[in-house]
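Record 1 of the preview.
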Amino acid sequence: MIRFENVGMRYGMGPEVLRDINLHLSHGSFHFLTGPTGAGKSSLLKLLALSHRPSRGLLSLFGQEVSHLEREDLPDFRRKIGVVFQEFRLLDHLSAFENVALPLRIAGAEDDLVQKNVKELLNWVGLGNQMNARPPTLSGGEKQRVAIARAIINRPQLLIADEPTGSMDPEMGLRLMHLFQELNKLGTTVVIATHDIEMIRRFRHPVMYLEDSTLHTTTPTAYLARFEGM
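->
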């Protein structure tokens, strides 16, 4: 599903923010991504989202090498990926409903299906009464929920989320984590970047952690023991 072979990444002529990344994730897996601030988590997520290219190495998604894809070929791959970044990237001139509906409309879904699925998902994330609200009128946590709903509305093959529950109360954060788990059971590969140790402790998915610009993968038990030993 996802394969990195000796991948490095830098911005411009600066030093590498990621180096010698080797990563193999199978279809339908669920991983947490963690590490100290500045370790390169956001950069790794950008590579997965195809919003940046590696400066060296090979990157394969969905069984195809994508490091050197032509620009016109990228949209087809990106439609298979749901992304939740911390800056939300909502369209302020569209309502919450239309922001969430956008991936379905781009895919050419029938209006009846759009109406049904978007309303159902916005109700699930607790925004059933704010479907017509535009992003500038929403709180940070509400914007995050709209962004999450938009990312998963078309059941992507890969879901990437950067601190998706960081601006929410614990009850809503837990509810959304269960939503991610249900999506994962349907076959979506999930990668969630988080600093939340309690989330890792509760959900027990494998952990990838960045340290000194390199990536390590371990079990939740081993990671928690390492963290608690600091």
